[in-house]
Amino acid sequence: MTSFKPFLLLLALSTCLLSADALRKVPKLAKPSRELENLYEDVLRRELQDVLNEKLLELRGSQSGVWATKLRRFARLFDSDGDGILTKAEAVGQLVQEVQSALDSETADEITDTIAEAWSSVFVIPDSGIDIDSAAILAIGNAVCNNDDRKRKLRIWARSVFSESDSDLSCKLSRAEHGLTFGMNHVTQSALAASFDAADADGSGEITKAEFLGAMIGYFCNKSEDSALFGP
Ligand SMILES: *[C@@H]1O[C@H](CO)[C@@H](O)[C@H](O)[C@H]1NC(C)=O
Ligand SMILES: [Ca+2]
Ligand SMILES: [Ca+2]
Q1: Are residues 72 and 180 in the same domain?
Q2: Atom 13 (ligand 1) nearest CA
Q3: What are the φ/ψ torsions at residue 137 (nearest 5 degrees)?
């Protein structure tokens, strides 16, 4: 609520000036008080916007426990030292190391780009990292899911993950292909079957690109439905 202070100060100031004006009836003060009025409106608008944003965030956070839990569960997969802060070194650095040691160099380079892209262009997380339990994680979720451009980036990223996982270029992911990608993303072996089933919407035993995109976008942006895509 500290953000209210400048507004209150200005309100007090303008109230004093306006009533003094009215008492003394000094017409030449009309112009400055008009500017003050504009300034006052401007500050009011911004203060109000801040408060509304804060309230909306709280509301969304409390109404969407499922969503917050999903986002935090995803972030925790990569918090390898378990200190509750997901740093770029953990999310990007370690994954890149694993990828580079497990795959041929061309595939590894492609995947490395996709991982770096996710951190800085899709989710846009500061290099210093993010406090997983803070509201910041919901702010990131809202920034991605409530904005068409950002959501498009999420889809483009998900398509890249799909293509890189589809190693036999069949345009479908088998259990083995799915397992390699999600295993590298720290989903445990015992959770891989449920993760596969979460994406294989029609239960055909293969994940199509449409199913994959639906599952990925749903994981990050569906605020009411939980998903085992990144483990239980
Ligand atoms: C979330 O997922 C459920 C189940 O798939 C679906 O019924 C619902 O429409 C989805 N909500 C949004 C906002 O996409
Ligand atoms: Ca950490
Ligand atoms: Ca399928």
Answers
A1: yes
A2: 222
A3: -70, -35
